[in-house]
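To: structure desk
From: M.T.
Subject: fold request, one chain
Message: Could you run this one when you get a chance? Sequence is below, nothing fancy, just the single chain.
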Amino acid sequence: MDFSDQLKEFSTRILKLKESINTEEATKTSIVLPFFSLLGYDIFNPLEFVPEYTADTGTKKGEKVDYAVMQNGDPIMIIEVKSVNTDLNSKHINQLFRYFTVTKARFGILTNGIVYRFYSDLEETNKMDLTPFLEINLLDMKPDTVLELRKFCKESFDMKGILDSASELKYTSLLKNAIAEQFTDPSEQFVRALIKNIYNGTKTQAVIDKFRELTIIAMNDYITDVLNDRLQNVISSDNKNISDIKPVQEKELPFLPQELETLDYIKNMIHAENVVYKKTSQYAYMHIAGSQYKWIFRVYVRQDKCLFVLHKFSDTDYETEYFFDEVELLSQIQSLIEDTYKKCKQM
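Reply: Done. Structure tokens follow.
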């Protein structure tokens, strides 16, 4: 059986067992030991896998780490285990941090049986980093993490190879987390950097707050556009007739009252014909029937206001985002909406 298939099977086993595991000892025997056995280590051979490994720290004698993986008489990995019900956090690495310093191990692993955090001394020799270079969740395995975990299997273990890629893994992971955070809650510094060459006016707090919302919208729209472009490229490269491709059945989302009010108001105001309403998890929009890419405008409902966004063309030189709390206020830009509607029909 392939390693990835073994992991899937093991993941299924964990799902069945985890509700009945209530202690740290049960976590060790039911999940952690079988996991390291899956990696190819002989958990019953004390020359290879040592439970309660002694790691005396300074004046403290008899300090023990839960497990140590041995190679040529020295530990190469030390493992600290918490109960499967424990949400791992920074306070749990204190023991592992101390043990790492007084052993020859190059890798420290903190786990609750499901999540495994891998640490090393990338920043300062023999001093364990406080940030893991790799984190694996056995209930949410991804192809790239399976490849990294495979490097820790006994038969393919390559300390130099792992350490060479560990720094890149660590900082790539931190960057991904930072990017994800900006997608959901852009920082003021990030917003200011983005609008530096976009908005020439005074960047007051009110302006920053406005552009923070627009940044979230723009980033989500960008990802959607990229995915749509890639889908179109795949369709083109396969040389298939679009009519032969079965569309993905999407779950219909209900429109909010403010969204429907805006859609109906604009349709009546500009006497739009042959248009369709569409709803996503982020916004509602109106597009020309037969092509959702020919969208005319989008409306985003916020707590105390709505955001109206017109389709932007390369030859337009006017603002396309408008906040409003009463839909009638959009009549002030009726000519812009009509112009956009005409251009969408001609696309």
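Reply (cont.): The chain has three domains: 3-178, 185-249, 250-347. Let me know if you need anything else for the meeting.
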